[in-house]
Amino acid sequence: MQTLSNNELNEANIDWPVNMRRAIELACNVITATPNPRVGCVLVKDGVVIGEGWHAAAGEDHAEVMALNNAGERAHGATALVSLEPCSHTGRTGPCTDALLEAGVAEVVIAGIDPDPKVSGKGVAALEGAGIAVVHLVDFEGAARAINPGYIKRQQLGLPYVCCKLAMSLDGRTALANGESKWISSAAARADVQKQRARSSAIVTGIGTVLADDPSLNLRGEELDLDPESRAHNKMSLARQPLRVVLDSHLRTPAAARIIAADGEVLIYTVKAVPKDQAFPDNVEVVRATKAASRVSLQFVLESLASKFACNEVLVEAGSTLSSAFIQAGLVDELLVYIAPRLLGSDAKALFDLTGLQSLADSVDFEVKDLDKVGGDIRVTLVPVCPAVD
Ligand code: AOF
Ligand code: ZN
User: pTM for the whole thing?
Assistant: First the structure.
């Protein structure tokens, strides 16, 4: 396989970057294809785009197959630009390498190698073995990785990508002392959270939140602020429910809790022995986790979500105790904080539950990645900064 930078391209392939950018855009427009990666594909012949495709959901056509179906006969002799190495295995659908070969595609340009060991390098080998040139357009590697942070982390580390969502007032409070907390943030911010849920394979919360707020934590596709094209593009992912996960060391989740009553599957991690005749409905699975300081081990939960439940991206929507525990354990990849421009006062509950910090050197530090206004609120996206090692 040849690896080329954009500045090494010649006259004949000068339009590859534009078309690869489009393939990546098509992949980005996929809210989720969990447990599969987001993938986009563009077919070009004589400088003209003759087919576009994306992978809408697991079990549906892969991006290459959708693009080939769009192009029909014209695919013969075309260049396929794909945001990910084409697959060479039969999973829920057949190998894309076979589909590309059968259609008579002349060359394949990719932005990245598939980290799935079933495919990794084998897709390229299958195409090259059949005499098709494969080029890795290396300048797009970073963009291609950024589309699928969870899929890549799960394949490489056996852990999902963890985003922790929090909502607070301008003075860093989440609820009044009496617990009243509903609708701190605006309707626009809540619709934005729905978008985060839609991207996620699972939503994780704690028993404290279930008992205090009785949230559904479900996806309500109709509440997302999407243009009609994006809505059509994502029809399948908007109709699904992310797995809802409760960390419940002592198995106190009420069988009648809203999180259970809402459509979709629920997973409860506990450190108690799983009762033989559980009192929960069929959409609930209880998993016995290993203990960490007499509670459910967060590391265990994340490993289990990745390996047993194929979760790519996980959204933690929990109270201050569990959110703080995830952060202190170094298990959070991204913090998403919605700030409502109002003051709740110092009697109200604080966003985090971190005590015992003795000096500034003990602070838990983040880097701001993004800052947006969402409705009347502010949304800050942060990533943890690893402490410097002396
Ligand atoms: C591609 N194009 O659009 C996607 C790929 O079970 P399946 O058939 O859906 O296969 C899932 C695997 O296929 C997934 O783990 C990843 O390796 C690859 N995804 N490959 O050529 C696509 N979505
Ligand atoms: Zn495929």
Answer: 0.94
